[in-house]
Amino acid sequence: MQRGLFIMKRFNVTGICVPEEHYMADISGKIAQIKKLIDNRGYFTINRARQYGKTTTLYEIRRRLSNEYLVLKTSFEGLGDETFGTQELFCPSFIRQIVSALESPSVQTEPEYTEQWADYNIKTFDLLSRHITKMCRDKKIVLMIDEVDRTSNNRVFLQFLSMLRKKYLSRAAGDDFTFHSVILAGVYDIKNIKLKMINEGLYNPTVNEGTIYNSPWNIAVNFDVDMSFSSAEISSMLKEYEADNNTGMDISLISNEIYNYTSGYPFLVSRICQLIDEKLDKNWTSDGIREAVKILLEEKNTLFDDLFKNLENNKDLSDYVYDMLILGEFKPYMVYNPIVDMGVRYCFFKRQRNGSDRVAISNKIFELLMTDYYIAKDLHNKKQDVLWHDIIKDNRFNMELCLRKFADHYAEIFNANDSKFLERHGRLIFLSYLKPLINGHGFYHIESQFTDLRRMDIVVDYGSDQFIIELKLWKGEVYE
């Protein structure tokens, strides 16, 4: 079905999602929560991992709140480092961003007001502060700055945040006018930006600046809005799609199944839907979802590139994930643990509440990718002595034969390694053995909510068959 004259709606995984062009989850509930923060004149940060829908959320805020506020969306993306080198360069650049936002077709304001903003002779933060006071006296402006952490290693940016903080506090005392609300969007939590810079040797505070923990953004209210899609929100997107395409899908079943693999990560949800629609002949079934997941796991994209880059560049984080995912170690959920904080920031981790407050991998697709990452690095992943056609016949996987062959393989390894090594790495040895046999035709995931030091449950999907395998360290009949 066409929308408008030429536009056919589709699923989108690149750039901003637009309601007139793309199938989108209904995020009205999220926008309502954000509006409460704005109504209360809150300054806050939307910090989520890459491709988590931050830019689309900012677009929706502007679209839905434009009748009540003058919403100006700006971005630091694409601005050269020299722009943030000095006040003299930053201040005119910031004003150009404001003017450009005012000139957007989606912003309705008087041309004279735009002209008043365009004073490019302002080249200090003191003058910029006075200019903001004048321009905000009679306007309720919501300022949104996207990709704000692109400049997070620069002192001038901290001074800019300090200026906004001072004006916010002065307004609360009735002594100033400033932006009604300020929203910063990026991966990193801006409240911790100064300490991050000090730890990296990029910033040396002076005596007059006070404690290093005195963040220039400590005025920000907590942003507790869940940016992931719930199963109901996924359903809202599929209902609109089904109205256009009449595939006969079971919307509730498909929504729950997609959520089961993705935990609502926006990019992963949209990509699975896109693959089913465009690559898998609209096979909106459980089998179709599994096929889409297989394709997704084999492709390269910027989200997966970031995932592997963050594992490679943060050894402590990588070791932590390995211990939890491969060795089955219990990890308590403590946000003041810097490794846990980093994992949450990258959306690697989530809090698993199943009787114990523990860390879990945020979704099954990340779990699969990370496990494959460690298998690829496993030096003990040797050539198998069993051919695939011994185990796979007529596209059916003989799991019993696979396990018997692995037992022989394991016995060979046992002669060359001590029991301590085998207990610690036995799970990885099995996954390393299994992976080449199902590669390209099936996949597995670890039921991490049941993982503990004694057992690991693995679900293997191959064709229309599904196997559940429990890996357990056998301590003998008395122990059992």
Alpha-carbon Rg, integer = 26 Å
Principal-axes geometry comes out as: elongated
Structural class: alpha/beta
Which strand order spans the largest sheet, edge to edge or round the barrel?
3-6-5-4
CATH architecture of the largest domain: 3-Layer(aba) Sandwich
Mean pLDDT: 85
CATH class of the largest domain: Alpha Beta
Q: How much β-strand is present in the residues?
A: 5-15%
Low-pLDDT windows of residues:
1-5, 449-453
Helical percent range?
40-55%
**Number of helical regions:** 18
Between the first and last Cα atoms, what is the distance in angstroms?
Answer: 61 Å
CATH topology of the largest domain: Rossmann fold
Number of strands: 13
Short synopsis of the structure:
By secondary structure, this protein is α/β, with parallel strands linked by helices. Helices cover 46% and strands 13% of the residues.
Account of the protein in words:
The protein is α/β, with parallel strands linked by helices. The protein folds into three domains: 28-209, Rossmann fold; 231-302; 329-472, no CATH class. The protein is 46% helix and 13% strand.
Topology, pairings included?
Layout: E1 2-3, E2 7-8, H1 28-39, E3 43-47, H2 54-65, E4 70-75, H3 87-102, H4 111-117, H5 125-136, E5 141-146, H6 155-172, E6 181-186, H7 193-199, H8 231-245, H9 251-262, H10 266-278, H11 286-298, H12 302-313, H13 315-325, H14 338-345, E7 349-353, E8 357-361, H15 364-376, H16 388-391, E9 392-393, E10 396-397, H17 399-414, H18 419-438, E11 442-446, E12 455-462, E13 465-472
Parallel strand pairs: 3-6, 4-5, 5-6
Antiparallel strand pairs: 1-2, 7-8, 9-10, 11-12, 12-13
Helix pairs in contact: 8-9, 10-11, 15-18, 17-18
